[in-house]
Amino acid sequence: MNNFFDNDPENTLDIDEDTVKFMLSAALTQSDAYPKALANFLFREIIEEAHVKYNISQEDIRSMCKQAVNRAALYIAHTQSKRPHTMQAFAIHAAGCNNWDDAEITDEIEHEMDLIAIAEQILNRLD
Fold it and tell me: What phi and psi values does residue 103 have, to the nearest 5 degrees?
């Protein structure tokens, strides 16, 4: 495997470039790829854990995933809006979340950031 971060001794993500290209191709040829990617990134593992822990039906899992994709599409539409204050207005959804923990960069998130960086490098070379 080719480590795309050979110059960074702290990075241990090893992934084959062909695998990343295949994943990108499979992802980008889908309809609604970006909302699906965001929903998958944010919720899929959480939904799967709930599925196992609480014996949620596959039909209910599909419904939850659909709701997540719909909400992700709305979020993406807001982030791409050229209207002023759109993101600030979207923050209304944080009302009532003041007791939630703040975001943190975990090892899992660092791994995800590395994967995205590799995919971005490949896409930049393809331009």
Answer: -65, 150
Q: CA-to-CA distance for 57 and 75, rounded, in angstroms?
A: 27
pTM score of the predicted model: 0.76
Q: pLDDT tens digit string along 74-111? A: 999 988 888 889 888 989 999 999 999 999 999 989 99
**Is-contact 39 65, C-beta < 8 A?**
yes
**Residue type present at position 58:** Q
In the chain, domain spans? 1-30+100-127, 31-95
- Using one digit for the tens of pLDDT, what is the confidence trace for 24-51? 999 999 999 999 999 999 998 888 898 8
**CB contact at 8 A, 118 and 13:** yes
Helix (H) or strand (E) holding 3: none
Is residue 27 within 8 A of residue 127, CB to CB? The reply is: no
Residue 9 has pLDDT above 60, yes or no: no
Tokens of 117: 């960086």
Q: In whole angstroms, give the CA distance from residue 69 to residue 52.
A: 21
- Distance separating the N- and C-terminal Cα atoms of the chain: 24
